[in-house]
Amino acid sequence: MLIGLGPHAKRIYYPMIEKWQAEHDFELALLVELESQRAPVEQYLRERLVQPERIVYLPDSARHGGDKFTAELDRFAEPGDIWGCIIATEPKAHGVYARWAIECGAHILIDKPLTAFNLRDRQPEEALRLVADHQEIHTAAARRGVNVLVQAQRRAHMGYEMIHEYLTQFTGAYEAPLTYVDIYHADGMWNMPEEYFSRENHPYKYGYGKIMHSGYHFIDLYAWMLQLNQRLERASCERINLVARESNAYDHLGQVDHQLYERFFADAASGNVLTDPQLKEIRGYGETDVFLLLQAMRGDRVISTGSLNLLQTSFSRRAWPKLPVDTYKGNGRVRHERVTIQVGHLLNIQVHSYQSYEAKDWHGDKPGVGQYDHFDITFYRNCQLVGGEAFELITLGDAMQRTNETDKSYIGHNEAARAEVFLDFLHGRTSRAGLSHHELSIKLVSAAYYDILRRRYGGLSAPVIQTAPGASDWFSDASR
């Protein structure tokens, strides 16, 4: 069963269903979409090899979730009818569909984030509900005996798995913790001013933005790497102090103002001037850029510092005012991704992945800096103390492209990682993407939004996250 056939599902999930349907002997029993998407869905399916046995179109108001809409699904799927459910909707609807699928006894593969809800003009404490959602869904899934996997593919990415395994061995051998993790991600998501009010795919008008769009991947990557320290007797951390800063849609229109829009998009200039009421409304919209400083503490000592700089106001290839049909990978988004991990004075590992054009313009070019499939890993070792080469370079993007040169379905190293999570879902494996592994990630997201909301409306906060799994008192605000 597939719930949601938007740009992401069309590019990722449906081709995977077609690729592995025969080998794994499953049928697409049910496809669920919104009524407004009927025409694009029917057009898309006319060109596909695999056809769903049944399609259910729900009212557009179902995009916000609601039990009355899952009651409609009860007419088509009773408990035990569906083995598995892929949830690829706008995040606000994730929770209600996940709860429904669990009660049906279906295993779940769900896009990140696990859940979301309207945070615009809300009290900061409401952001903490994200953790309550995780606990509730995790408990319900365990009770029903179903798996829930979150599609956060860097946990299954060949390069990051290689780094994680290397660090597991290295930190264990020397009892030396990760002392610094720096993650930078820029995706070049450039919105025309009027689009902030209309976007439903990667929206801002519900009070959230970059974190829930692509930022979750990197908060999760940080949490996954940091948890290596929890294996070390002398360096495991008890809590994380967090500071979050943002610039949001309102700020963006000061950074890229009307004069710049008029210069480059003169034909659409009239739509780029917002009225005073619109400017007032947009103050509560979601973040375009977010910056997190995190310090993992043991007693009164800092063990590890994390810095996450997650941008949308960044290099883009968008050069047109009107949205294209493919707003996911066809609207100028370009990835720049950099990771630096320090293990004290002993080891530094870096990731560099820089594109100069977007997915639709990739034609299998040889990878390298600026190419679509670029992904390099560098190791710097204090070799006189720990052995090995002082410097090592792994051009993973090049290696993966050579490995997959005969696979016509290969569309990049990140998408190959998504396929790994999809196969984990089919095989019932939860060791990489299972819901229990996302507890700390969701705590960090909740605390970040708590800080953002409190500061957005003039308050102060100092979020503290307890790292112990399952703790009911996981959050405190040291400023209060």
Structure explained in plain terms:
- This protein is α/β, with parallel strands linked by helices and 480 residues long.
- The chain has 2 domains: 2-111, Rossmann fold (3-Layer(aba) Sandwich); 153-413 and 434-477, Dihydrodipicolinate Reductase, domain 2 (2-Layer Sandwich), CATH 3.30.360.10.
- The protein has helices at residues 7-11, 13-24, 38-45, 67-73, 94-103, 129-144, 158-174, 195-198, 210-226, 249-255, 258-264, 276-282, 383-386, 396-403, 413-427, 439-456; strands at 2-3, 31-34, 55-58, 84-87, 107-111, 148-151, 180-186, 239-248, 287-298, 301-311, 336-343, 347-354, 376-381, 391-395, 463-466, 475-477.
- A 10-stranded mixed β-sheet has the order 14-13-12-11-7-10-9-8-15-16.
- The radius of gyration is 22 Å and the shape is globular.
- The mean pLDDT is 93.
Give the CATH topology of the largest domain: Dihydrodipicolinate Reductase, domain 2
> What is the approximate shape?
globular
CATH class of the largest domain: Alpha Beta
Q: In what range is the share of β-strand residues?
A: 15-25%
Task: Say which CATH homologous superfamily of the largest domain is assigned.
Answer: Dihydrodipicolinate Reductase, domain 2
Radius of gyration: 22 Å
What characterizes the major β-sheet? 10 strands, mixed
Calculate the terminal CA-CA distance, rounded to whole Å: 46 Å
Percent range for helical residues?
A: 25-40%
Report low-confidence residues grouped into runs of 5 or more. none
Query: How many individual helices?
Result: 16
Q: Give the number of DSSP strands.
A: 16
Q: If strands are numbered along the chain, what order do they take across the biggest sheet? A: 14-13-12-11-7-10-9-8-15-16
